[in-house]
């Protein structure tokens, strides 16, 4: 178990996605200690172009007043891509906690340049999930952001 319960919840989402035959990336959105939305990458499962872990978490959080997102923290097991970084900025998420960015470096620079507090944990569980997946299923990884 992870010492941070919200990163643990994101990891559990990543593991659920892997168990479904998908890409092991998970995310949760937390508002004042309450998880509003959980999600995992469902590109494979739903034949979707946009259901990354963060996007799925936003979808599952549903409509929220703007101030709720501006008071929330997004946890994700992997550095957010351009699309997910854009959603983070669009909804005004002030803080993002990233499990790892060794297997993929998303647009953390953009987030920081726009005032988002970005913390990268380099969590070994998150690293292992992605490295194992990429080694076993490179064709799925390379379909999207892995190239």
Helix/strand-derived category reads alpha/beta
Kindly state the mean pLDDT as a whole number?
95
Rg, please? Answer: 14 Å
How many individual β-strands? 5
Which runs of at least 5 residues are low in confidence (pLDDT < 50)? none
- Tally of separate helices: 8
**How much strand?**
15-25%
Strand order of the largest sheet: 2-1-3-4-5
Globular, elongated, flat, extended or rod-shaped: what is the shape?
A: globular
**Could you give the distance between the termini?**
32 Å
Q: Profile the largest sheet.
A: 5 strands, mixed
- Helix % is 40-55%
Query: What series of H and E elements makes up the topology?
Result: HEEHHHEHEHEHH
């Amino acid at each position: 178990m992870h010492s941070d319960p919200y990163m643990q919840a994101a990891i559990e989402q990543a593991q659920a996605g892997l168990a479904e035959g998908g890409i092991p990336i998970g995310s949760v959105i937390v508002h004042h200690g309450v998880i509003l939305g959980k999600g995992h990458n469902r590109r494979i499962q739903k034949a979707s172009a946009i259901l990354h872990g963060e996007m799925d978490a936003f979808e599952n959080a549903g409509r929220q007043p703007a101030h709720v997102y501006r008071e929330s923290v997004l946890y994700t097991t992997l550095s957010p891509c351009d699309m997910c970084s854009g959603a983070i900025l669009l909804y005004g998420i002030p803080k993002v906690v990233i499990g790892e960015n060794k297997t993929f470096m998303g647009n953390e620079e953009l987030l920081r340049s726009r005032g988002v507090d970005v913390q990268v944990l380099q969590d070994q569980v998150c690293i292992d999930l992605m490295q194992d997946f990429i080694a076993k299923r490179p064709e799925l990884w390379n379909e999207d952001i892995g190239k």
